[in-house]
């Protein structure tokens, strides 16, 4: 019975993650194309996806490489974009923190926007789940998402510039993030952070090397944290 339950939870995660395949295929294919245009060969491009497995940071890095940005700017920008992973990890600790070290390490590797978004919503709904059940669901979500990312990165790298510009594969990038962010705008802090980051990205778009995105990210996180602190204090005063 336990095995059936584990299988059921795994497939539930796989079903929740499956819709992202529709954007993951063009998203990863586009990355393969962009990476080869930036000067990476097929093996380097695929290795990049295996080692980093962070789409937004990878796109940021190769775009800066294409623009001949200094290496330090490439590294700082990619790390800044990936700072959200630290926040993802922190919010998953109450649910997965008691797992074994190797399980946490594997979960950390597969923590991407899609696995986090699906898992944090499900974990909040199913607080009765054990750590093992949560991990099973988490890896179930990752199953239909991560392998296509690796495979189609290689496909994009091999076909390279053969893809016509009119195909416009880059539509997958905004659609992916809109699909992830929309359901998570559940608090004033989330909405405030989103509004400030979008506004700041537009205001500071003139900065070189896409540094406006770094400024926008920092301002958005500061705003979200401040609004959450204000709301928390109001809740404390109301309960006292």
TrEMBL record:
The chain crosses the membrane at residues 20-40, 46-65, 72-93, 135-152, 158-182, 189-207. It is found in: Cell membrane. GO terms for biological process: L-valine transmembrane transport. It is a multi-pass membrane protein. GO terms for cellular component: plasma membrane. The keyword Membrane applies. InterPro entries: Brnchd-chn_aa_trnsp_permease. Coiled coil: none annotated. It comes from the Bacteria. It holds the Pfam family AzlC. Keywords: Cell membrane, Membrane, Transmembrane, Transmembrane helix, Transport. Signal peptide: none annotated. PANTHER family: INNER MEMBRANE PROTEIN YGAZ. Belongs to the AzlC family. This is Branched-chain amino acid ABC transporter permease. The lineage of its organism: Bacteria, Pseudomonadati, Pseudomonadota, Alphaproteobacteria, Rhodobacterales.
């Amino acid at each position: 019975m336990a095995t059936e339950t584990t299988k059921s939870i795994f497939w539930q995660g796989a079903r929740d993650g499956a819709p992202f395949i529709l954007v993951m295929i063009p998203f990863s294919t586009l990355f393969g194309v962009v990476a080869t245009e930036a000067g990476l060969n097929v093996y380097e491009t695929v290795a990049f996806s295996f080692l980093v497995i962070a789409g937004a940071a990878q796109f940021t890095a190769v775009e800066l490489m294409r623009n001949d940005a200094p290496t330090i700017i490439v590294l700082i920008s990619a790390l800044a974009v990936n700072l959200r992973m630290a926040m993802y990890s922190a919010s998953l600790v109450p649910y997965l923190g008691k797992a074994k070290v190797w399980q946490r390490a594997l979960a950390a590797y597969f923590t991407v926007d899609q696995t986090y978004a699906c898992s944090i919503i499900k974990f909040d709904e199913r607080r009765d789940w054990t750590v093992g059940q949560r991990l099973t669901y988490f890896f179930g979500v990752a199953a239909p998402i991560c392998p296509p990312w690796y495979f189609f990165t290689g496909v994009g790298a091999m076909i390279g510039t053969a893809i016509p510009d009119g195909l416009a594969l880059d539509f997958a990038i905004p659609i992916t993030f809109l699909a992830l962010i929309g359901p998570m705008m559940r608090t004033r802090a989330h909405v405030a952070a989103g509004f400030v980051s979008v506004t700041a990205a537009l205001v500071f778009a003139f900065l070189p090397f896409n540094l406006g995105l770094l400024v926008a990210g920092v301002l958005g996180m500061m705003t979200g944290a401040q609004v959450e602190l204000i709301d928390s204090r109001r809740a404390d005063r109301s309960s006292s």
